[in-house]
Design brief:
Length: about 60
């Protein structure tokens, strides 16, 4: 699993948006988004820039 830190999530709707954005990327599965820890984890061998672009595209920031 790959884990990323996301800045800007504040509610369950944010979690749903982030989950949908990550699940919409080909070859990503097992998405888990933790609002309390500001983390998202997923399985799959995907270019990190593709993930970052998906997250920033919905208004959040990937940290690190």
């Amino acid at each position: 699993m790959t884990t990323i830190t996301i800045k800007g999530m504040s509610c369950p709707h944010c979690v749903a948006s982030t989950t949908n954005a990550l699940e919409g990327i080909a070859d990503i599965s097992d998405v888990i988004v933790d609002l309390e820890k500001n983390l998202a984890s997923y399985s799959g061998d995907v270019d990190p820039q593709v993930v970052k672009d998906a997250i920033t595209g919905i208004g959040f920031e990937v940290i690190g």
